[in-house]
Design brief:
single chain; alpha/beta; 4-stranded antiparallel sheet; 37% helix; binds magnesium ion
């Protein structure tokens, strides 16, 4: 269990983050924080800037303005590998495994290039096997990534991210395309991840999953955070119902 002081500790701070593409401001003065041990749902309509925010936080894009701190250290516009080494890992909306590598080798890459780089291949392999088992891929270490089903490729990408030993894990629509049973399994997995250490921010459209698993929900609309609070409060917020759900309510 986390101590109360653990819950108070700020892990990620994002302030005034802004990014435009041509004339379009995809992310506009976005400000929010994540504490250690939290699971945060990151929701909003398509095109509201969720993935762009993740791309800015992980260094795939440089912001036009704004700042990002991890545990008090500014990491704004660091290169992606440096941000990974500091302890932020992510999965992609469209999974990006190394298609022709085995599941084991995919996850070993995470162990070797992560926050606590593992130099010995045998150690990386044994850590990778443990991580594969943790995400439900025990026994599939030798399967090529491209031969796995969608749900298994998603698990593989999660395992690769976890193998970097992140302090903060960003999940971009991890549950999209899963059936209801698989969503339940994925929700349990997210809870277990938090128990092992990292805070989690999850972009997710499946409302029951976000509401069921998040300690806090942040709602984006047109690149700005329009609500930030406990799931029940956010679901009742008229601004959210208007902007995000078009007035139909959360159901
Ligand atoms: P979300 O993940 O919330 O659906 P995105 O962050 O992907 O939204 O996109 C926000 C807006 O920025 C959208 O209008 C999208 O078309 C635009 N956008 C995102 N990435 C790029 C890019 N690399 N080049 C141009 N426009 C982009
Ligand atoms: Mg997206």
């Amino acid at each position: 269990m986390l101590s109360a002081s653990g819950l108070d500790r700020r892990l990620l701070d994002v302030q005034g983050l802004t990014k435009s593409f041509g004339g379009l401001a995809a992310v506009k003065g976005l400000t929010f924080s994540v504490r250690e041990g939290e699971i945060v749902g990151f929701i909003g309509p398509n095109g509201s800037g969720k993935t762009t925010a993740f791309n800015l936080i992980t260094g795939l894009l440089a912001p036009d303005a704004g700042h990002i701190w991890l545990a008090g250290e500014e990491i704004t516009a660091f290169r992606p590998h440096a941000i990974c080494a500091k302890g932020i890992a992510r999965t992609f909306q469209l999974v990006k495994p190394f298609a022709h590598l085995s599941a084991l080798h995919n996850v070993m890459v995470g162990a070797i290039y992560g926050r606590e780089p593992v130099a010995a291949l045998a150690t990386a392999a044994s850590q990778a096997r443990e991580t594969l088992a943790f995400v439900g891929l025990a026994g599939k270490d030798q399967v090529e990534a491209r031969r796995l089903t969608l749900v298994d490729r998603k698990r593989l990408e999660l395992a690769r991210a976890l193998a970097t030993r992140p302090r903060l894990l960003l999940l971009d629509e991890f549950m999209a395309g899963l059936n209801p049973q698989e969503v339940q399994t994925a929700m349990a997995l997210v809870r277990r991840i938090r128990e092992t250490g990292p805070a989690v921010v999850m972009i997710e459209h499946i409302v029951t999953a976000v509401m069921g698993v998040s300690d806090r929900v942040i709602v984006l609309s047109a690149g700005q955070a329009i609500a930030d609070g406990p799931p029940e409060a956010v679901a009742r917020d008229p601004k959210v119902i208007d902007a995000y759900l078009g007035g139909v309510g959360v159901a």
